[in-house]
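Input sequence (182 aa), recorded before submission:
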Amino acid sequence: MVKLIVCLTGMPGAGKSTIADGLKSKGYDVINMGNVVRAEAKNRNLEPTGPNLGKLMIELREKNGQGAIAELVVPQIENTESKVVIIDGIRSNAEIEVLRKHGTVKLLAIHASTNTRFGFLKNRGRSDDPQTKENFEERDNREIGVGISNSIALSDETISNNNLTKDELIDYSFKIIEGWIK
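Predicted structure, token format:
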């Protein structure tokens, strides 16, 4: 059983995936919640656009409960031999409750200003990233609608990612997680 499940939470573009990618090199296993939604979209032959993935995420939750996306990553958690697993993209308390059945859960919230997040997303280049302020606001509202603000509010630690370099962000996160392990 995994000893520690670190859930990265925060609004889209705050830096969760940057942290997750950086922590892979530190030896942690990383599971991306959005990737399971993208995989489901591929199975359904849906174009992986922001609106399509958002509708699918909501549909999965309506059909299978608010913890549905977390349930989809449980097999990956159970199959890892790592003592620490990073979950990139927790969006609700129901998902956290699902994960608590599989290890000790700690929440790390990443905050960044609206302008910082929009800039990060425009430059990231993923198929579901918003390219207009209108699409960005729609995505933010969808995330708030599924409960992301609750997971952010309940976080064990918070990092402000407005003026950090990529390396500083990753190192700061690593130090927090190492403190949780001890």
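Checked by second reader. The longest strand covers residues 104-111.
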